[in-house]
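Why do we care about 3D structure at all? Because function follows from shape, and shape follows, mostly, from sequence. That is the central idea of this module. The next example makes it concrete: a single protein chain, its amino acid sequence, and then its structure expressed as tokens.
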Amino acid sequence: ETSNSRERSGFRPTQTRKTQGERKSAGYWKDIGNIEKEIRNQWVSVKVSIPSDQPPPIPNESLLNYWKRNDIRNAIYQIGGREVLSAEMNGAFLVPGKWKEASETVWVKEVIANDKFLDPEVPPLSPQQAKTKREDSMGTTESRHRKRWIQTSARKQKGFWRSEEVVIDELYKYLSNRRNARGLPAVWMPRGNELNDAGRNDLHQAIARFGGSNAICKKAGLIPSREWHYMEGLYELMIELKAYSDEFFDGNYSLFPTVYTLDEQGYERLKSLIGYFGGQKFVAQRLGMTHVSSKEDGTDNQTEQISYGKFDLDFGIDLLEFVRQESMKKNPPLKFPIIAMPTFRDFLRSDDEEAVKLDSKIDEYGGYENVARRMGLAYAPNSPQ
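And the structure:
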């Protein structure tokens, strides 16, 4: 896996909320020794012993997601991928990317034996789903395996797509399988190219036949793809900015980079996202950041245009992560298919003990309506989502 092969669905980073106490010092993740130590400690934490004279095996993305170790995953990405890290760690073993193959390795076998939520046939669930009873939500191992691969089965027989109801029912099944396999909410409408890539060209064509994506999305009570792709893109933008600041600004998240240098610094994706969201001046002001050139010459870009006020990347990432986690819990159809700004009641009801702390940050950064506007979220405080 290289930096160019990092898997995304549209915009799909996965980020773990961290408290301020967990932040590492600037440059910590640039040290190969620190990365190796973190990987070794992670294996030990799941009761897998690694000989001290051998480098620890490098986990695949499924395991890192399941363990919520996005700090390790981002560090691997920043140095060039797992193959590069393996070479730096004296040929450390790479856990295969395919779960079926990974589950046959001695280390992952031990992980599975120690974790009742894992089995060798089905890739790990997301952290949100792991909180629920696996058997209650998905049935037996055999049925889970069958559901996981239903979208790759043979095309439906002639006459199967006889009504709009059949199309929507099949769409719901696809979305449920996608949530289990890829960690995407089941209330997010897929794009046509996603269905084609998943081997569901038949479903794509059926949707087109019965009114098209917009019509089926509305009738199925799903969130349109353009809306969730926008949120995921903004989420990824903030994560990329944070990674860049850790590397080049010693963790100073108030500074905004110059886009013209991003290609040569290995941040082509960040450059693309900045362009997509309106350019460096607009994005910097939207996120409460100061362009590095303005800081150096003593000027303040906040005076050139309207200021959005205070903000910080950690808060923005945490907020959108919370929104995403809440979306993972929902099933279609939604009565109000929107991506809404959470309310204080939502934070109180959450299983995440850190979530309620977001409320005080929201007040600090201008209130719920202002933060919703800045993050592109619908402000619907009375919507019973």
